[in-house]
Amino acid sequence: MNLNLPHLHLILNHVPTVGTVIALGLLATALMRKSDALARAALELFYGVALLTLPAYVTGLATAQVLKEVPEVSAEAIARHHDAAVIASFLMLFTGGLAWLALWQTRQGGRKNATMWSVLVLAALTLATMGGTASIGGEIRHPEIIVGEATTAEVGPAWLRAASIQAAVTENVWLWPGLEAVHFVGLAVLFGVIVVVNARLLGWMSAVSYAAVHRLIPWAALALGVNAISGMLFLIATPEQYADNIAFHAKLVLLLLAGANLLYLTESEEPFRVGPNQPVPAMAKMMAVSGILMWIGVMYYGRMLPFIGGAF
Amino acid sequence: MDFIQLLEQSAPMVWMREGGSLWGYPAILFAHTLGLGTVAGVSTAIGVRILGFARRIPLSSLQPLFTLVWVAFAITAVSGLILLIADASTKLASPVFYVKMLFVALAVVCVTQLKRAMMPTPGGSESGGRGWALGALFCWAAAITGGRLMAYIGPINGLG
Question: Tell me, what's the ipTM?
Fold first, then answer.
């Protein structure tokens, strides 16, 4: 099977809509039945859907580059779909981040209904926006779904449109270097906290319980959030640097795996039971080593964007 | 300056800079990134503990992390020195470079003092060091920002 990037986009674009519908239903049921297990499953799903929204977005950028060359495809329809996707993707990232927080709180024993209800409300808003994005996306190549006139209205607030963000980076020469500085500080905080938390699983600081070290993880999650946002802004500003760049694709795949690893550190029962001076199960050690290696890989391919991928 | 230029134009530096191998300039650049991420990031983890987060971690148990910080600092310094020599005439002419070095020096002072402040005292008190922690966080962030801006301010030769 030959799977190119546009084909991958057509597969991945179902995840943010269908995934959010299922997760939303699960979370609503969990809140009604007061079921912790169901709530956790829903929150995990939101987190996973938020991660997979990144490749859905990136393959969308690659698809736009391909369709740019096809004369019968309307550039305006693609721009509208892109503008909607930017808003929906940011909302999805916030939903995933909030779901992560709820999972962390649950593991710390402080289950906060307020956080879960916030996830529910934000997810409903995300679903509406994501549904709209999908619908506008469908109109690009499916005239048969258009009832009456095709949508022509511009999407979202002007400052959040891709063209405005691209113009801002061109006009304000300090914006890009500033975002890079933020992205690098974020990388340091994320990696440093990950190293410290995993160090406990590898037998350092063995006098400390894992539950105590677990309290540092929100700093890593915060830095990941900052870098997801700054990274999205890089993508929006210069999509041609990333959409078809093999180094960036490698970074993205490793980021998804590292993101799953972060969920293990946050959620799993196994490391959390490790008390002061207690041995660490082999599985937890393996996850610690692979987690550190995956984050190193994310940084490597990020730094190699100009050298392997030929960007900039 | 002549000696620096001699080094800059030496065969290993020319190969590293212009050889086009991923094991040349890109590898040193990555070592620098990985090193600075570890130094600044582990310092941050220690710093936020001092500032009152994750209080259930006893301060004394964080001492081994300083070893990691200094090992990573050595990697960052050596790779940084190579990056500097490979591009000496441009970087030494950049004012941002000296500002960055100032913040690195200040950050090292803060981390050293932080380690001292975290030593268990006879009274067993676990306070102090907050100022050094804040100083370390700020100076590392400023040093990283300075490093990034070197690619944009002053003389630039296009090396990433």
Answer: 0.94
Pairwise CB contact (< 8 Å): B54 & A187: no
Interval B103-115: pLDDT, tens: 999 999 999 999 9
Q: What is the dihedral of CA A186, A98, A287, A220, to 10 degrees?
A: 20
**DSSP helix/strand/coil, A62:** helix
**Cβ–Cβ gap A181/B140 under 8 Å:** no
Interface check B82 vs A, CB under 8 A = no
Residue located via tokens 């391909």: A66
Of B33, B41, B152, nearest to A303 by CB-CB distance is B33
Q: Place A57 in a pLDDT band, splitting at 50, 70 and 90.
A: very high
Q: How far apart are the first and last CA of chain A?
A: 32
What Cα–Cα distance (Å) separates residue A197 from each residue in A84, A103, A228, B39, B53?
Answer: 37, 17, 21, 15, 14
Distances (CA, A) of A308 to A241, A286, B151: 12, 29, 19
Q: What gap in Å lies between CA B157 and CA A122, rounded to an integer? A: 46
Q: What angle do CA B20, A242, A126 make, to 5 degrees?
A: 155
Q: State pLDDT tens for residues A205-246.
A: 999 999 999 999 999 999 999 999 999 999 999 999 999 999
Residue of B nearest to A193 (CA): B45
Q: Which two tokens stand for residue A244?
A: 């078809």
DSSP string, A180-197: HHHHHHHHHHHHHHHHHH
Residues A95, A46 contacting (CB under 8 angstroms)? yes
Burial of residue A124 (CB within 10 Å: 0-12, 13-18, 19+) is middle
> Cα(A149)–Cα(A157) distance, rounded to whole angstroms?
23
Within A71-174, residue ranges assigned H as helices are 75-107, 113-141, 162-171
Of A255, A85, A219, give the one whose Cα is nearest residue A165.
A85
CA closest to B56 among chain A residues: A212
Q: Which residues of A touch B100 (CB under 8 A)?
A: none
Give A309's contacts in chain B (Cβ within 8 Å): none
**Distance between alpha carbon A219 and the CA centroid of its chain, in Å?**
17
Residues A55, A123: contact at Cβ < 8 Å?
Answer: no
